[in-house]
Amino acid sequence: MAAPAFLSKSAQSGLWFLVVGASAALTHIAVFALAQPYLLAELANAAGFMVAFGVSFGGHRRLSFRDAGTTLGQSFARFALTALAGFAANEAVFALLLRVAGWPALLALLAALVAAAGQTFLLSRFWAFRR
C-alpha cells in the first residue's frame, strides 16, 4: 500500500503515522472497553496498550518508517522503550483525569492517547526508526 506519490517522504511518513496511530488507538480503545468491566480502569488501559503495541510496531515499521536505517531488532527494542515512555505519559494523564478531575473513563483515555501521540511520533521518527 503506497501513500500518494505527490507527497514528500516526510509527508508520506506523517500520513502513515496518523493512519497506523489511529488504528492502534482504536485497538487500544476496543480492548479497554472490553476489559474495563472486569479490571481496574488503569489495568484495562494497560491491557489496551499491550495489544495495541503490536499493531503500532508492525504498522510503523512497515508503513510509517519503512525506510528505517535500523535493523528489525534495533527498531523493536527502541520502539518498545518509546512506547513504554508514551504509555507512562498516557497512564499519568489518564489517572489524573480519571481520579483527580473525575472525567469519565473513556474521555480520560481519549485525552491521554492524544497527549502521548506527539511524544511517540518524535521519539519514533528521530530515534526508534532513525533514518
Short description:
Helices cover 79% and strands 0% of the residues. By secondary structure, the protein is mostly helical. It is built from 4 helices and no strands.
Keywords:
131 residues; mainly alpha; 0% strand; elongated
Please write out the topology.
Elements: H1 9-35, H2 41-64, H3 72-100, H4 105-128
Give a verbal description of the structure.
By secondary structure, the chain is mainly α. It has one domain (9-128). The protein contains four helices and no strands. The mean pLDDT is 89.
- Helix segment tally: 4
For this entry, what is the oligomeric state of its chains?
A: single chain
- Which range does the strand content fall in? under 5%
Overall pLDDT confidence: 89
Low-confidence region ranges: none
Task: Give the tally of structural domains.
Answer: 1
Order of helices and strands: HHHH
